[in-house]
Design brief:
Blueprint: H1 2-34, H2 41-61, H3 66-93
């Protein structure tokens, strides 16, 4: 009986840790959305809109969309980084 209770407690603890990790990931998406640099206001607006939609999807679907959301998050960040580098180079050449 003690062994089963111990296993159940361990399982519950694992579940709590996994949920905490997912919440950290969700908060990271929302923080990147909130603190996006506004080098181009329209680009920043679209970036924030895309990340807000991604965060909402992750919050609603949780584990079902985790793998796809990581790729989407990385792609959104790469897109804005590429645009920022391009703007930076243009400014540096001027």
């Amino acid at each position: 009986m003690i062994s089963i209770r111990s296993e159940l407690n361990e399982l519950e603890r694992s579940h709590q840790l996994i949920e905490a990790a997912l919440d950290c990931y969700l908060n990271a998406i929302r923080n990147v959305e909130h603190y996006a640099l506004e080098l181009d206001p329209e680009l920043a607006k679209q970036f924030r809109k895309n990340l807000a939609a991604l965060a909402d999807e992750v919050a609603a679907e949780r584990w079902k969309v985790l793998d796809d959301s990581r790729a989407t998050f990385r792609a959104r960040c790469a897109t804005i980084a590429t645009a920022a580098r391009s703007m930076w180079r243009t400014c540096a050449m001027s």
